[in-house]
Amino acid sequence: MFTNTKAFSGFSVNDIQKAKTFYHDVLGLNVSEKPEMMILTLHIAGGTDIIIYPKPNHTPATFTILNFPVENIDKAVDELTAKGVKFLHYDGELKTDEKGIFRGGGPLIAWFADPAGNILSVLQQS
Question: Among 42, 43, 45, 94, which has the minimal tally of Cβ within 10 Å of its Cβ?
């Protein structure tokens, strides 16, 4: 039924303008806006689009909603930190280092949140 359908993903935020600033100015993504619908579209490399919509009773996702592959995770974390991004730190099964990078097996990965509290990550490509 959906074999030839181009699916897309979407998630909610509590402030569409803060989201637009964060995703465009901080992360550097190509963002378009449909003001009449109050929807943002993130245009991700490879032709994938992701929609962001406002939700007054928004609850942040408790899981990673977007993963951004990078060549050098330390460089990416440093650049994002310089732009004001605060990385999440975990001290349990997934223990992160002082930068917020998990180096305990599997891909090197660091998690951070958007202004609405949704969890995103950068992960180093092997």
Answer: 45
Which residue range(s) make up the domain with 77? 9-124
Query: Is the pLDDT assigned to residue 48 strictly greater than 90?
Result: no
pTM value?
0.91
**How many domains does the chain fold into?**
1
51: β partners:
10, 41
On whether residue 23 sits in a domain, the answer given is: yes
Q: What percent of the chain has pLDDT over 70?
A: 99
- For residue 102, give the CATH number of its domain: 3.10.180.10
